[in-house]
Amino acid sequence: MFKRTKVTDGTATGQVGFRKKSKVPGVMITQYIEKLPEGKSHPDFTRKPIALTIQEGKFAFFKAIVTGDPKPTVVWSRNNGDVSDPARYQSKYDPNSNEHTFEMPHVKPDQADTYKCFAKNEYGQAMVTVVLNVIEVGFKMTKAPQQQAEVANCNFKKVLKRRSKVVPKAEEPEKKEGEIDPKFWELLMSADKKDYERICAEFGVTDFRWMLKKLNEMKREREEEQAEFVKNLSDLKPIHINADGTASFELEFDLLDPSSSIYLYKDGEMIPYTKELGDKMKHCLRKVGRKYIFSMRDLMPEDAGFYQLDVEDVNMFSTDFKMVDFLVKIQEVKAMEREDAVFECVISAPLSKLMWFGKNMPLEQGDKYDIEVSEDKLIHRLVVKDCMVVDKGIYAACAGIKSCNAWLVVEADKGAPKGKKSARKTTRAGGSGTDLQKVAQEQQQKLDKEREERKEKIKAAREAAAEAAAAEEPEKTADSGAGKDKGAAVEVERIDKTSVAATTTVAGDSGSGHSAGKASGGAKQDGSHADAGGGHSAGKASGGARKDGSIADAGGGHSAGKASGGAKQDGSHADAGGGHSAGKASGGAKQDGSPADAGGGHSAGKASGGAKQDGSHADAGGGHSAGKASGGAKQDGSHADAGGGHSAGKASGGAKQDGSHADAGGGHSAGKASGGAKQDGSHADAGGGHSAGKASGGAKQDGSHADAGGGHSAGKASGGAKQDGSPADAGGHSAEEASGGSRQDGSLADAGGGHSAGKASGGAKQDGSLADAGGEPGITSGLSDILATRGQPAELTVKMNTDCDGAWFKDGEPLKSGGGISITKDANIHKLTIHSCRDTDSGLLRFVSGDLSTEGRITVGDVPEFDEDDLHKFSKPVIVRVGQNAAFKMPFQPQESLTVSWFKDGTELKDGGGVKIVREPNHSRLLLRDCLRSDTGEIKIQLKNPFGAVEATSQLIVLDRPGPPEGPVETVETTSSVIEIKWNPPKDDGGSAVTNYIIERQERGHSLWTKLGDVSAEKTSFRDRNVTHGKKYSYRIYAENPQGLSDSLETADSIMAGIMILSGPPGKPKVVSTSKTCINLTWTPPEDDKGVPIIGYQVEKRKKDTNQWLALNAINEPIEDVNYAVKDVTEGAEYEFRVSAINESGAGDASPPSAMACAKNPNMRPCFKDPEDFLVVRAGNSVRVKISYEAEPPPHITWLKDDEPIAPWINVINTEGMSQLVIPSSKRSDSAIYTIKAKNSVGEAFFDVEVRVTDEPKCPGPVELEQTVYGKVAVSWVPSPDQELDDRLYYVVSQHDSNTRMWKTVADRLFANTYTAHNILPGIEYHFRVYAKNDMGLSDPSQSPTWGANSNRVPISSNGVSSMEISFERPPSILVPLKVHTPPKGYQLYMTCAVRGCPTPNVSWYLNNTCINSDKNYYITNSCGVCSMYILRVRENDGGEYRVVAVNSLGKAECSTKLTVRD
Fold it and tell me: What is the pLDDT of residues 583-605, one digit of tens each?
C-alpha cells in the first residue's frame, strides 16, 4: 500500500482561514489573518508547475516561483505516495532565479500521480496541484503472461489494468471461421447511426436485427463504465486528414477526476504522446476547453490502423484510420480561354471527399470550382469553370498522404475581338483519357467480392452455432422445466439514408403472456412501438423494420426460442411466430407476393406470417399445443399480431390503417384473447392470461393506451381509453374485478366478465351506450372512417360482446370473400380484409348483426412521394457567402389536397420579408435573401395530404469570416526570454475551417502593433522568443479562414517577460571636475547585485530648487563604465546627480544624490591654445590674426606691434575664448611682430606672432656674364628692388642651351647676387634667366646676353632708327561688375567684382556712400584684382547700395549694385 504524505495546515487551533484569489489560475490561497501588516504579504505563485507527460526512465521535474513577505517555505507532496526518498525525489532552490525545483531522475511508472506544492509563511499558505503521467516503455494493452506472474506475487494493482478486446497484430490469436473482429463492435459504439450500414458491409455482417440488439446491450454496459470517469461525452469525430498533412480525431467530455490518466492505443498497443512538445513527438493530445484533440504528423503508410482513447481502463472512443491510393491519377489539361477544365482520378477505396489544391491553395465548391464524386465514391472530379489565363498552374488531389498533381495550361483565345472578352464556351477540356467507369467498376467488384467472402464466412459460422444450440436445447428444457421468465424488450432503430419520413404511423398493442414477461414491439417512425405477442417463458419476440420505420410484431413462444422476421422489399421485417423450444422461426415476404412461412413450435401448432406484395397475408403462429395464431402486416406499416398460448386458446388480431394494432391474446387455458384497434385510436380488448402477470396495451396514435387482458388469478386487467373517451374492455379470469376506462365525456366504460364470480360489465358502443356484459348481443367496437393507401392492404374489425353472426355491405351491396376481399370471424370478432386497395374499394362499408349495425367510410389514396434523383440533388448542401441569396427547389408529382410547407431548424417558414416561397403544381421553390451567418441550419420541405406526409432535408451553410478566438488568453510560460500564450478556437468558424491564427504584439508604452507571425489552426498557442526581460507586452490574436480575418482577441492585462530582480543602489556619485559645459562624475558599483549581472548604469540629474529628476540616458542605452561626462548643463546652474544599476529586469534602486555642482569653469591663468606664430599676407589684402585662449575669469586682452601700441586703424575683435586682430588693407609697412597679452586675476600670458606683408617680387636688374676659368661662367645681376624690404627674398637661376633647347633650373634659394655656371662648352649657345622669389611667388625673369658661338658677332646697325620703349601702365578698369543680390535674413552673402590697372589700384567698398573697409561686420579681400566682400549673417541694416571704387595714379573706376534683404 502507498503511504500518503501528510502536510499539516498552518492555521492554529481555532484560527480562521480567509480564501484569497491569485492572479495565477489554479492557485488556492488561504490567508490566516484578516488584515495583513503593512509591507507584509501572504505566499503566492508567480509561476506554477506545469503538468507533464513523460516516458519512463526520463528526467522529470517541476518548477515553481513563489513570492511573499516573509519569504515562504516550499514543501512538495503527492496524493498516493511518499516523497521522502532522496534517491527518487529531490527538492532544490536557486536563489539567483528564485526557482523551486522538484526533480525525479529516472522516473518510474509508479511515480505517476497528482503532486502538490505548498508555499507557507506566518500569514498564509498557497497551494497548487500538478499531474505527472508516465508512459511505460513497450507497454501493451494485453499482458496475459505478465499478469499471471503478478497474480502469483499478489501484485493486484497491475493485474487490474484494462485488457482490450483489440490486441496487437503480433499477439492476435488465429481467428475461427466466420468470427467477427472485436474492432467491429468498438467502431460501432463510436460511430454515427448513418455509418452502421457501411461498417456492417465492411465486416460482412448482414443480420442487422441481431447486430442492433447486441450493440444496444454493449452500449448500456459501456455507458455505465464510462460514467465512473467522465460525463457529457459528445461530439465524437472520427479520424481525418487535415489540409496541413496531419491526421486528427476529437471528442468532448468532462473528467470527473482531473487527475485521471488518459491513454492512446494503436492496434491495441500503447503509443506515447505529448501535451506540450508537439514539435518533437509524432503524436500529440491537446485539450481545448472540453475538447480533446489527438493529432499525429509526418504521416506514413504504417500509421494506418485502429486507434483508441481510454480514460483509466475504460474506452471512450475508437476510430479506424485507412490509407487509400490513386488507381488513376489526374492528367495535364490544356484548355482554351473561357472553357471548362476537368481533372479526374480513381482511388482504391471509397472516400466521400478529396482535398483539392490549386496553386498551393485549398479549393472549395463554389462559383469557380465544381467538385464531383461518383455514387460509389471512387471517381472524383474537379471542374475549373470559365478558365482564364490567370488560372494556369499546378493542381493537386490529396487523399491522406497520397497525392497526385498535374498542370493546367490555358491558351488565350486569339479569335476574340481586341479589348473585349471572348464568349463563354460550353465545351470541357481534359479528363484522364481512360475509361474511369470501367476502372472504378473493377475496383468495386473487387471490394464487393472481399465483402461477400466475409459475409459467407460469418453466415456459415452462425448457422453452425444455431444447429449446435438447437441440439442442446431439448436436454436443457427437460432438466429445467417450464420456468416463468420475463420477456425481453427489443428496441430496433432504423437507419434512414434518405432523410424522408412517412407520417403514416402505427401504434402497436402488446398481448398478455403466460407469465409476467413483457412483450413489446419495435420502434416506428412516429416513436410508437409495434406489438409483440406474449410467450410462455422468457423467449424474445421482436418485429422487423417496416418502410415507414415501424417494426413488425413477433408472436410469443413457450420457451427460449427466438422469433425474428425476414426483411421485406421495402426494408420491413416479416413476422415470426414464437415456438416452444429453441428452434428459430422466421418468415418474410417475397417479391412475388408469396409468403415466407416460419413455423416453430413444440407440438402441432401452425405458424405462418408475412405480408405479400399483392396484399395477401402470411400467417405466423406459435403455440405449445394445437392453438392457431395468425397475423399480417399491412402496407401502412402496421402488423398483425401473432398469438401465442400454452394450450388450445385462440389468439388473433390485426392492425388498421389508422395505425392502431390488433391485440394478440395469450393464455394458458381455454380463455380467448382478441382485440382490435379502431381508427379513433382506441384499442380492442385482450383476453386474460393464466397467472398474476399484468398485461397492458400499447400506445395508440392519439396517445391512448392499448388494453391489456386480465390474468388467470388475482391479477388486475383494465382497458385503455378510446378516442371518444370510452375504454376498451378488459376481461378477468378469476374473482377479481375488471373495470372499464373513462370516456371522453367522463362516463365509465364497463368491464367484461371474468371466469368466476367476479363482476363483469359491458364495453362502450360507438354511440356511447354501454354494451351489456351478458345477455343481449351488443357491439363493443364498431366501424369508423378510415383512409387506405393505394396498393396496400386494409382491415376493418367489428367486435361483439357475444359470439354471433353478421354480414358486411358496401354501398348497400352485400360483400362476400373473394375478388381481393376476405371476411373472417373469430369468436366475437368480425374482420373484413382488403388485400390490395384500389380506387373502386372506396365507399361506405356497413356491418349488420341482427338489429345491430355499424358503418364507416373507406377512402383510397396515395402518400406523397419524391423522386430519388430529385431527393439526392436536394440533399446536397447549399453553400453561400454572407449577403448572398440562397435558393432551394424541389420537384414533385401534382396531387390534390397537397400542402407544401418549408421549415428551417424545425420552425415553419412563412412568405414575407427575406423569405420568398413559390408554389407551382409540380414543384416548390424557397428563396432566402441576404443570408446571415445565423441562417445556417437545416432546411426541410414537407408534402402532406390526408394519407400521410413526406419530408426531405437539406443544409444551408452561410460562409463568413470567423468569430474572434475564445478567451481569455492564458499565459502558459513567461521567462526572461520567452512568453508563451494560449487561447481557444472561435465558437463560430464562419462555416469554413479556420486555416491559421495571426498574432500581433504591442510593447507597453508604445502605440504600434507589430505582427509576430501566424500559426496553423491546429495549434492554439504561440511562443514569443523576442522579448526583453522585465518589459510588459500585450497580445492580440486573429482567426483567419478563406473568408477573411476575425475580430481580435486581446490580452486583458500586459504580460511581463520574466520576473523582476533589480540590483541594489550603486555608491554615491562624486564630482571629478566641472566646467561651464561639462561636469564629470564617477561612482562605485553596487555592493549587492542580487546575483544578476549588471549591464550598465543610468544617470539622473536634478537642478537646484526643482523636484524633478531627469534621466540622462535611456535604460536600453546603459552607461557601461563607472564614470560619465554630463554635457547637458547650463552655465552657472547648480546640479546634483544620482545613479541606478541596470540588469535584465531593468533599473534598480537609485544611489544617494551627489553634492551640488555648479557648471562653471575653474579659476585658471590664461593660456593660448595652438596659436600660429608666423603669417604671410599679400599687400592689399586684409590681415586676420586669430588667437584662442582659456582663462577664468575672462582676461583683459591687449595687442602690441613691435612692443608698441597698435595704430587705431587696426581692429581688434574679442569674443569668448578668442581674440582677433584685423588689418583691413595691408601694406608692406604693416609687417611686424604683433604681441597678444592676456591678463586676469590669476595671472597673465604673452604670445608673439610675426606678420609679413609682401607682394610678388620685382625682377632683378641686368644680368652680366663673365668667363674666368675655362668651362665656367660667372653670372651676376643687379639685386631686385625688394631685396631690402623682404629678408625672405632669394633668387632662382635657369639655364638654356642650343643643344637641348629646354630651360632648366640650375640654382635655387640663392641669397647672393652671383652664380657660377659649370660645364660651359664651346660652340654651344647659352642663355640664363634670373628670378627673384619670396613667399608670394616668382618675379619676372631678367634675361642674360647670349653666351657661346655667336657672342663675338658684330652687331648690325639699325640704320639710325631708334626703337620705342613699351609702357604697361594703365588706369583702373572694371572687368566684372557687381551683381544684384536678394538674400534672406540671417543667410551668408558673397559679393565679388574684378578690377584691372597698373600700377595696382587701391580698392575701397562703400555702403550708402559710407566706407566699410574698416567695419568688422564685413570681411573684404583683394586677390589679384578679384575683390570680394563676405557677410556672415545678413541683417536688415545691411540692405542698400554697395559701391566699389578703384583708384591709382592714372585714374579711377567704380561699379555699384543693390542688396535687398528678404524676411
Answer: 333 333 333 433 333 333 333 33
